[in-house]
Amino acid sequence: MRLIDLSSPVDSTFWEPDPVTHTVLSPAEGARHMASEMKAHFGLDFPVETLPGGEFLSNDTLTLTTHTGTHVDAPSHYGTASHGTARHIDEMPLEWFHRPAVVVDVRDVGTGVVGERRLKEEFDRIGRYPDALDIVILHTGAYEWVGTPRYFTDFAGLDGSGVNYLLDLGVRVIGTDAFSLDAPFTHIIDTFRRTGDRAVLWPAHFAGREREYCQIERLANLAAVPSHGFQVSCFPVKIARAGAGWARAVAILD
After folding, report:
1. Are the CB atoms for 31 and 51 separated by under 8 Å?
2. Which residues, other chains included, contact 139 with Cβ-Cβ below 8 Å and sequence gap of 6+?
3. Which of 106, 178, 179, 247 has its CA 20 to 30 A from that of 163?
4. Average pLDDT over residues 1-6
5. Terminal Cα distance for the chain, rounded
6. Rounded distance between C-alpha atoms, residue 155 and residue 110, angstroms
7. Are the CB atoms for 102 and 137 separated by under 8 Å?
8. Which residues touch 201 (CB under 8 Å, ≥6 apart)?
9. Distances (CA, A) of 224 to 2, 9, 164, 251
10. Which residue, 109, 169, 161, is CA-closest to 139?
11. pLDDT tens figures, 125-161
């Protein structure tokens, strides 16, 4: 068995629309913090010089959104559902997140949208159509720009025909190496201004208001995996009542 990491890091040095704040508590600071907490909460006095080198443990505090780094979007993220109460990330079935995967190479598209026709062409090319509950992943090439503003403006997303076609096949987790499963905000707004067509406004996300499914966004390293014949494990962190959860996505190859 071979494991390939498909996850983007959470990195406070990366350019992000919502910047990540990462504060590190050193082991020496951790000792003083521990002593203070023990005094405040349990009434215990503990001299830090008792510890080897006066050190206890380090700690990290981060401020970030659940959509930073590789993460899974839950149905509640998409808005008010027409099919009933939209489930949060801690309520989703684990069986969805450890499944065979199919990778769709759309790097030639550039910035724009991918629809049903292109998906079918790619499945024909690789000789593999997704089965129900398979994880389908768009390989847009966007990861080349991770950590820069371009990562958020240069990639291809799914249009309404594409996401509904995959859901008709029984797919329940759709992934991408881009910032969003929809086209970039800049592309969507420009297209809407030119056409006046509301159907171009975040169709991949808004489809989740009508049909329950999850997205896994900001994957990485897709060039290292084949188009099919492997599994993906991408269990989301169990954040109560949240619309998304971070995931350590891994490809599992026999």
Report:
1. yes
2. 103, 104, 105, 106, 107, 177, 222, 223
3. 247
4. 97
5. 5
6. 6
7. yes
8. 188, 192
9. 11, 17, 28, 9
10. 109
11. 999 999 999 999 999 999 999 999 999 999 999 999 9
Are the CB atoms for 66 and 99 separated by under 8 Å?
Answer: no
Question: Across the chain, which distance is largest between two alpha carbons, in Å?
Answer: 71
- Which tokens hold the place of 80? 């008010």
Q: Which two tokens stand for residue 115?
A: 């629809």
As beta bridge partners, residue 232 has: 99, 251
Residue 33, both tokens: 């913090």
Q: Which of 17, 30, 90, 37 is nearest to 61 (CA)?
A: 30
Nearest by Cα to 217 from 6, 75, 71: 71
* pLDDT, tens digit, 9 for 90 and up, residues 209-254: 999 999 999 999 999 999 999 999 999 999 999 999 999 999 999 9
Q: Would the pLDDT of 84 be above 90?
A: no
Tell me the backbone φ, ψ of residue 114, rounded to 5 degrees.
-120, 130
